[in-house]
User: Fold this.
Amino acid sequence: MNVTHLECANCHKIHEANVLQNLCLECGKPLLVRYDLEKAAQTLTKESLKTREATLWRYAEVLPVESPGNVVCLGEGWTPLFKADKTAAALPVKLNLYIKDESTNPTQSFKARGMTAAVSMAKELGVKKVAAPSAGNAAGALAAYASRAGMETFLFMPKDTPRANIIECEQTGANVTLVDGLITDCGRIVAERKDAEGWFDVSTLKEPYRVEGKKTMGYELAEQFDWTLPDVILYPTGGGTGLIGMWKAFDEMEKMGWIDSKRPRMVSVQAIGCAPIVKAFHEGERFADEFPNAHTAASGLRVPKAIGDFLILDALRESNGTAIAVSDEQLIAAVKEIGASEGIFCAPEGAACLPALRTMIEQDLVKENETVVLFNTGAGVKYLECFE
Assistant:
């Protein structure tokens, strides 16, 4: 629609947008979609949004699909933003606390956002078979959207992936292979076999379009807060596409004149057992080493090496944000605390944001009366093993 080209996030090499692309042909880093934002802003206006559908496709002018007939939609996006007053009352500092609840998406997680964009573009570009590694929710979303698009899906998941995710993928038509290892091991299998098998690899940030679906979380936040962004966003970080996407969205909105240059402090939340971004952030590194012996009950956080690590770290530093790791005991306890206070059964990853916020308060990184958003990225019902 308004796409001009793809640009490498690292070396800035320009790539064509109307052909299948994975990583940068020059340096092997992620590609990002660039738009003619001046043209987009002619029809995508704050006023026009008032009458648009309550899905993420309301922002069609800044999404990559050319033909509306190629959009594969299950009703994703426009998720609720809840005021969390009871949770806030238990904190030592008075805050305007909100939870952005992504569990109301199709397939019950924020992964639906990325997959609606990725699969729609794969359909537009003629893909018949897709493959990906996943620790859970991404697999469920890819299986659902690819089946709706008429594609074959090949998924590689760690053996200890939550059972609900595995069953979900099997029941929505995917070919599922369980691997004795981590998501990085699953990713290697996809990379080794994709050419011979004719698969298009839709791994996190190894194609340009999942981040485009995820960035709509940033657009929605701005719209739901009447175009004034919150002071702090805490985001559970595995591959980090959502955080990267929101940071991209804020830049696009400023260029279209919707918001000013003020940005939220972005906070990456990880588990102590798998905290490559936290380690790299506090050591002043731009790239994160692979985290050894990665383990955590929050399977979505068990990503020992993220290909978009430098983009996450750039956003944290540019926003004066931080990175915080919490224990499994803390994040599991937070599921019950949020559930009992707010009626939201969070995924362990999303619940991890609450103890991270407490750490920020202890370190005087949040001020009284600031507006803070915690992202619940999925539904707790997918993680029943964690609560046995």
